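[SOLVED] Need 3D model of a two-part complex

Original post:
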Amino acid sequence: MYRSNGAFRVTALCVGIAVLYLPILVLIGYSFNASPLVSVWGGFSTVWYAQLLQHRSLLDAALLSLRIAFTASSAAVVLGTLAAIALVRFSRFPGRFLLTGMVTAPLVMPEVITGITQLLLFVSQLQTFSWPHRGFLTIVLAHVTFCIAYVTVTVRSRLQSADRSLEEAAMDLGAGPTRAFIEITLPLIAPAILASWLLSFTLSLDDLVISSFVAGPATNTLPMLIYSKVRLGISPVINALASIIIAIIGTCVIAAGWLMRRADQRRELEMREAERANAAPAPPGGGEPPPLALRSPS
Amino acid sequence: MKRSLNPWRWLIILPPLLFLLIFFLVPFFYTLKISFADSVIRIPPFTDIFARTASHHLRLTLSLASYRRLLTDHLYALAYLYSLRLALCSTLICLALGYPIAYAIARSRRSTQNILLLIIILPFWTSFLLRVYALEAIIANGGLLNTVLLRLGLISHPLVIMYTDLAMYIGIVYSYLPFMVLPLFATLEKLDPTLLEAAADLGSPPWRAFLDVTLPLSVPGIVAGSMLVFIPAVGEFVIPSLLGGPGNLMIGRVLWDEFFSNHDWPTASVVAIAFLVLLVAPIAIYQHISGRQIEG
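Solution:
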């Protein structure tokens, strides 16, 4: 490590973190403000949280959004993982170029464009095949499309860094390629799959623009309802709702991150110990075998 | 060298490929088709471009009315330029703010790095819509910033930030900052510290070493981060509609209004296609070419 300016570093980090977190903290603070005006502090109160429970439409919309997010992220994880496997493991196949483009493009495509094009697809298909009617299904299909991109990017990088020699070793020991993949590589990429499910879930839960296009007139997701309420200014009930959502998501992400890091560290430790045990010369005169060495059938 | 393609492989390749074809690529062809239709008042609000004539021939009617509108109505050209300018400036501000942050994280200890990265990523996980809304409580006329400044006596009238371009800059920079920091961090972290030591040994002062070594080597991160901020920012809808002025010309908002308020689907399709051709396509081609140069 070489010398670097400590004061500058700390300042940059503090400014950055303050910029990112101040608005969220202010929002949470205001959700406990008894006064509905942001300019007046009316004392601590949970009145807006109590009011939240009486908003039937908000609760219905929240439930619908959760159902959409669960369905869409689960489907996206399956399709996105398959795409990642295809792109990493099969070096040449017809459509590879197309698939590469289609899993990266949604990451940068402006949502308004994706929303319009998908709505036009659904409307045209409804005209031709009388299916699908706009609502739950069309929102799920649209969300799966952009979630696949995030899943593929995440799983792909993990799969690329996964050690293939382990899988090859399993195949040398007689496991078929499918079994070797399921027993060796799948556990290795499981953290990435879990992370991308969580990411898809939160992205789907948050999506306003694409949902607004493909939802149809009768369906209202939570972000659509929130948007229609906050477009006209600050709403204390939404402050309370936002605080709850941010608290739940924040807790889940931190917990998942912590669990994944621990699992990774444990796996790394086991691998290192196994390696050390294998590399160490056999102790003369039959000493105790190292604790994590692979036991050979004697 | 050609390995036989195992038919089982298609079980892995086909589901995502077909899904994305149908729900991502095909929609663009529908959009292209509808861009040649005329706007009419019915459901759906556009004419069929294919029609069967009395003698059972298929007749193709292409209307260029929407394309003509795009070219003659200055609103759209203005909206493009306005959106490009706003997105470009916000990207530069993001870069100026994000570079020191990424640099500071990259120069931290390994264990600190992970925690700092989590802190930077966490807001990205929480709701985008709610974070934009959260800004309102700070910059509104009766918001926290004005209340504090008025109480301190630093200003006598509340600053008008809300519903101006400045509010949109703040919104974009605040929302997209993590997208700038992460790719920058990824390249800065890979930077070989011995290069800087070598520069120092050869007599470069730190700022010179930064300009000659660090900055040129972090160009890939700068490009990647700028793309991730610039492209979505040009088409941004939530920020201009919540924080921007009522008449702001961000293209995402214009498109939205064309669709939901004017119900002019063909014009919206043309605007979307022009947007794609003028913005996304050049960037995709550029990335493809530069990607190829790196690979080969």
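Edit: DSSP finds 13 helices and two strands in chain B.
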